[in-house]
Amino acid sequence: MNKPLMDSRQFREWNETMAGKYDSESYHLRSSFVIRWIERRRVRAILNFLDARPEDTVVEVGCGAGVVLEQVPAGYLIGVDLAANMLPRARKRLSHRPAGVLQAAAEQLPFASRSQHKLYCTEVIEHVLEPQALIRELARVATREAIIIITIPNEKLIEQAKSRIIRLGLARWFLQGSHDNAPGYDSPGDANEWHLHQFDLALLQAIIAGSLEIVALQAVPFRWLPLRYVVCCRPKE
Question: Fewer Cβ atoms within 10 Å of its own Cβ: the N or the C terminal residue of the chain?
Answer without folding.
Answer: C
